[in-house]
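Thread title: Can someone regenerate the structure for this chain?

I was given the following input by a collaborator and told the matching C-alpha coordinates would be attached. They weren't. Posting the sequence so someone can regenerate them.
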Amino acid sequence: MTLTVAGEPLLAYLLASVRIIAWLALVPPFAGRSVPTMAKVVLSLGLAFAVVPNVDGGSIPTSTGSLLVTAVTQVVVGAALGLVTYVLLAAIATAGSLIDTFGGFQLAQGFDPLSMNMNTVFGKLHQMLAVMILFATGGHLLVLGGLLRTFDVLPLGEAPKIEGASHVLVTAFGMFFVTAVQIALPLIAVLFVSDLALALLTKVAPHLNAINVMFPAKIGLTLLLLGLSFPVLPEAVSRLVELANEAQFALVSGG
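Best answer:
Regenerated them for you:
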Protein backbone atom coordinates (compact mmCIF):
# COMPACT_ATOMS: atom_id res chain seq x y z
CA MET A 1 0.00 0.00 0.00
CA THR A 2 1.31 3.42 -0.99
CA LEU A 3 0.43 6.48 1.08
CA THR A 4 0.75 9.84 -0.65
CA VAL A 5 0.41 13.31 0.84
CA ALA A 6 -0.17 16.50 -1.14
CA GLY A 7 2.76 18.88 -0.89
CA GLU A 8 0.98 22.22 -0.35
CA PRO A 9 -1.26 21.09 2.54
CA LEU A 10 1.71 19.44 4.24
CA LEU A 11 3.81 22.61 3.91
CA ALA A 12 0.91 24.69 5.21
CA TYR A 13 0.54 22.33 8.17
CA LEU A 14 4.24 22.55 9.06
CA LEU A 15 4.38 26.34 8.64
CA ALA A 16 1.32 26.78 10.85
CA SER A 17 2.90 24.59 13.52
CA VAL A 18 6.06 26.73 13.36
CA ARG A 19 4.11 29.90 14.16
CA ILE A 20 2.22 28.16 16.96
CA ILE A 21 5.28 26.64 18.63
CA ALA A 22 7.08 30.02 18.51
CA TRP A 23 4.05 31.45 20.33
CA LEU A 24 3.97 28.62 22.88
CA ALA A 25 7.66 29.13 23.67
CA LEU A 26 6.91 32.58 25.14
CA VAL A 27 3.38 32.55 26.55
CA PRO A 28 2.70 31.39 30.11
CA PRO A 29 1.79 28.83 31.32
CA PHE A 30 3.01 26.95 28.24
CA ALA A 31 6.47 28.54 28.34
CA GLY A 32 9.13 27.40 30.74
CA ARG A 33 10.23 23.99 31.92
CA SER A 34 6.89 23.17 33.52
CA VAL A 35 5.62 22.10 30.08
CA PRO A 36 8.07 19.70 28.34
CA THR A 37 9.36 20.61 24.91
CA MET A 38 7.84 17.49 23.36
CA ALA A 39 4.44 18.46 24.78
CA LYS A 40 4.74 21.88 23.14
CA VAL A 41 5.62 20.28 19.82
CA VAL A 42 2.68 17.87 20.00
CA LEU A 43 0.32 20.69 21.03
CA SER A 44 1.48 22.89 18.15
CA LEU A 45 1.04 20.03 15.67
CA GLY A 46 -2.44 19.36 17.03
CA LEU A 47 -3.51 23.02 16.87
CA ALA A 48 -2.17 23.29 13.32
CA PHE A 49 -4.87 20.84 12.17
CA ALA A 50 -7.46 23.56 12.88
CA VAL A 51 -5.66 25.97 10.55
CA VAL A 52 -4.86 23.86 7.48
CA PRO A 53 -8.45 23.50 6.10
CA ASN A 54 -8.72 27.29 5.72
CA VAL A 55 -5.34 27.76 4.02
CA ASP A 56 -5.24 28.47 0.30
CA GLY A 57 -2.78 25.95 -1.12
CA GLY A 58 -1.74 28.28 -3.92
CA SER A 59 -0.42 30.86 -1.47
CA ILE A 60 2.25 28.52 -0.03
CA PRO A 61 5.66 28.91 -1.72
CA THR A 62 7.30 25.71 -2.89
CA SER A 63 10.79 26.91 -3.85
CA THR A 64 13.54 26.38 -1.27
CA GLY A 65 14.47 30.04 -0.81
CA SER A 66 10.89 31.29 -0.52
CA LEU A 67 10.01 28.45 1.81
CA LEU A 68 12.89 29.30 4.16
CA VAL A 69 11.89 32.98 4.18
CA THR A 70 8.28 32.03 4.94
CA ALA A 71 9.38 29.72 7.78
CA VAL A 72 11.51 32.46 9.35
CA THR A 73 8.61 34.88 8.94
CA GLN A 74 6.31 32.52 10.82
CA VAL A 75 8.83 32.26 13.65
CA VAL A 76 9.04 36.06 13.89
CA VAL A 77 5.26 36.47 13.75
CA GLY A 78 4.69 33.77 16.38
CA ALA A 79 7.34 35.26 18.67
CA ALA A 80 5.87 38.77 18.29
CA LEU A 81 2.38 37.49 19.11
CA GLY A 82 3.78 35.57 22.05
CA LEU A 83 5.64 38.63 23.31
CA VAL A 84 2.59 40.89 23.49
CA THR A 85 0.57 38.09 25.10
CA TYR A 86 3.32 37.39 27.63
CA VAL A 87 3.67 41.07 28.53
CA LEU A 88 -0.02 41.42 29.29
CA LEU A 89 -0.39 38.15 31.20
CA ALA A 90 2.72 38.93 33.29
CA ALA A 91 1.04 41.98 34.83
CA ILE A 92 -0.42 39.99 37.73
CA ALA A 93 2.95 38.47 38.67
CA THR A 94 4.47 41.96 38.54
CA ALA A 95 1.76 43.20 40.89
CA GLY A 96 2.87 40.54 43.37
CA SER A 97 6.48 41.67 42.95
CA LEU A 98 5.43 45.25 43.76
CA ILE A 99 3.79 44.00 46.93
CA ASP A 100 7.04 42.22 47.82
CA THR A 101 9.03 45.39 47.24
CA PHE A 102 6.87 47.63 49.42
CA GLY A 103 6.16 44.95 52.02
CA GLY A 104 9.75 43.99 52.74
CA PHE A 105 9.68 40.53 51.15
CA GLN A 106 12.02 41.44 48.29
CA LEU A 107 14.99 40.08 50.28
CA ALA A 108 13.31 36.67 50.54
CA GLN A 109 13.40 35.93 46.80
CA GLY A 110 14.62 32.52 45.71
CA PHE A 111 15.62 30.66 42.59
CA ASP A 112 12.74 29.13 40.63
CA PRO A 113 13.99 26.04 38.73
CA LEU A 114 10.96 26.03 36.42
CA SER A 115 11.37 29.57 35.09
CA MET A 116 15.17 29.55 35.63
CA ASN A 117 15.23 32.96 37.30
CA MET A 118 14.82 34.60 40.71
CA ASN A 119 11.24 35.02 41.94
CA THR A 120 9.88 36.85 44.94
CA VAL A 121 7.38 35.31 47.34
CA PHE A 122 4.17 37.09 46.36
CA GLY A 123 5.28 37.48 42.76
CA LYS A 124 5.33 33.69 42.40
CA LEU A 125 2.10 33.38 44.39
CA HIS A 126 0.26 35.81 42.12
CA GLN A 127 1.69 34.08 39.05
CA MET A 128 0.34 30.71 40.21
CA LEU A 129 -3.02 32.28 41.07
CA ALA A 130 -3.20 33.86 37.61
CA VAL A 131 -2.48 30.51 35.92
CA MET A 132 -5.08 28.77 38.10
CA ILE A 133 -7.72 31.41 37.29
CA LEU A 134 -6.77 31.29 33.60
CA PHE A 135 -7.46 27.55 33.42
CA ALA A 136 -10.46 27.60 35.75
CA THR A 137 -12.27 30.25 33.69
CA GLY A 138 -11.28 28.84 30.29
CA GLY A 139 -9.15 31.86 29.51
CA HIS A 140 -6.42 29.67 28.02
CA LEU A 141 -8.88 28.52 25.35
CA LEU A 142 -9.71 32.14 24.51
CA VAL A 143 -6.03 33.00 24.15
CA LEU A 144 -5.41 29.97 21.95
CA GLY A 145 -8.49 30.87 19.91
CA GLY A 146 -7.11 34.36 19.42
CA LEU A 147 -3.86 32.87 18.14
CA LEU A 148 -5.67 30.63 15.64
CA ARG A 149 -7.74 33.58 14.38
CA THR A 150 -4.55 35.38 13.42
CA PHE A 151 -4.18 32.92 10.55
CA ASP A 152 -7.36 34.39 9.02
CA VAL A 153 -5.99 37.94 9.26
CA LEU A 154 -2.42 37.08 8.26
CA PRO A 155 -2.34 33.92 6.09
CA LEU A 156 0.80 31.83 5.92
CA GLY A 157 1.98 33.02 2.52
CA GLU A 158 1.62 36.76 3.20
CA ALA A 159 4.20 39.16 4.62
CA PRO A 160 3.28 40.81 7.94
CA LYS A 161 2.43 44.49 8.14
CA ILE A 162 4.85 46.20 10.50
CA GLU A 163 3.51 49.75 10.30
CA GLY A 164 1.54 49.60 13.56
CA ALA A 165 3.70 47.04 15.39
CA SER A 166 5.52 49.65 17.49
CA HIS A 167 2.23 51.23 18.57
CA VAL A 168 0.85 47.83 19.61
CA LEU A 169 3.97 47.01 21.64
CA VAL A 170 3.99 50.40 23.37
CA THR A 171 0.30 50.05 24.21
CA ALA A 172 0.84 46.51 25.55
CA PHE A 173 3.69 47.64 27.81
CA GLY A 174 1.58 50.59 28.99
CA MET A 175 -1.34 48.31 29.89
CA PHE A 176 1.14 45.97 31.60
CA PHE A 177 2.37 48.68 33.99
CA VAL A 178 -1.10 50.18 34.55
CA THR A 179 -2.68 46.81 35.39
CA ALA A 180 0.15 45.80 37.73
CA VAL A 181 -0.06 49.07 39.64
CA GLN A 182 -3.86 48.97 39.84
CA ILE A 183 -3.83 45.48 41.35
CA ALA A 184 -1.17 46.28 43.95
CA LEU A 185 -2.18 49.91 44.60
CA PRO A 186 -4.49 49.37 47.64
CA LEU A 187 -1.83 47.44 49.52
CA ILE A 188 0.94 49.81 48.44
CA ALA A 189 -1.09 52.78 49.73
CA VAL A 190 -1.64 51.13 53.12
CA LEU A 191 2.04 50.22 53.40
CA PHE A 192 3.04 53.78 52.47
CA VAL A 193 0.81 55.18 55.22
CA SER A 194 2.29 52.67 57.66
CA ASP A 195 5.81 53.83 56.72
CA LEU A 196 4.80 57.41 57.46
CA ALA A 197 3.30 56.37 60.80
CA LEU A 198 6.45 54.48 61.79
CA ALA A 199 8.60 57.43 60.73
CA LEU A 200 6.56 59.75 62.95
CA LEU A 201 6.85 57.19 65.76
CA THR A 202 10.63 57.35 65.60
CA LYS A 203 10.41 61.14 65.87
CA VAL A 204 8.08 60.97 68.85
CA ALA A 205 10.09 58.23 70.58
CA PRO A 206 13.69 58.49 69.34
CA HIS A 207 14.89 55.88 71.81
CA LEU A 208 13.02 53.16 69.85
CA ASN A 209 15.10 51.19 67.39
CA ALA A 210 13.38 51.91 64.06
CA ILE A 211 14.79 48.85 62.30
CA ASN A 212 13.54 46.45 64.96
CA VAL A 213 10.06 47.99 64.82
CA MET A 214 9.55 48.73 61.12
CA PHE A 215 10.41 45.41 59.48
CA PRO A 216 8.25 43.13 61.70
CA ALA A 217 5.40 45.63 61.55
CA LYS A 218 5.49 45.93 57.76
CA ILE A 219 5.74 42.18 57.25
CA GLY A 220 2.83 41.51 59.61
CA LEU A 221 0.73 44.25 57.97
CA THR A 222 1.51 42.88 54.50
CA LEU A 223 0.41 39.38 55.48
CA LEU A 224 -2.71 40.77 57.12
CA LEU A 225 -3.76 42.87 54.12
CA LEU A 226 -2.57 40.56 51.34
CA GLY A 227 -6.11 39.47 50.56
CA LEU A 228 -6.94 42.98 49.33
CA SER A 229 -5.49 42.10 45.92
CA PHE A 230 -7.22 38.72 45.56
CA PRO A 231 -10.81 39.87 44.75
CA VAL A 232 -9.66 41.81 41.66
CA LEU A 233 -7.62 38.96 40.15
CA PRO A 234 -10.45 37.13 38.28
CA GLU A 235 -11.65 40.34 36.62
CA ALA A 236 -8.07 41.34 35.86
CA VAL A 237 -7.31 37.98 34.22
CA SER A 238 -10.46 38.23 32.10
CA ARG A 239 -9.58 41.75 31.01
CA LEU A 240 -5.97 40.79 30.24
CA VAL A 241 -7.15 37.89 28.07
CA GLU A 242 -9.33 40.29 26.08
CA LEU A 243 -6.45 42.74 25.72
CA ALA A 244 -4.12 39.94 24.63
CA ASN A 245 -6.51 38.86 21.87
CA GLU A 246 -7.00 42.47 20.76
CA ALA A 247 -3.23 43.02 20.72
CA GLN A 248 -2.66 39.90 18.64
CA PHE A 249 -5.31 40.96 16.12
CA ALA A 250 -3.91 44.50 15.91
CA LEU A 251 -0.37 43.21 15.47
CA VAL A 252 -1.13 40.96 12.49
CA SER A 253 -3.51 43.46 10.89
CA GLY A 254 -0.98 46.28 10.96
CA GLY A 255 -2.47 48.29 13.81
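The first strand starts at residue 110 and ends at 112.
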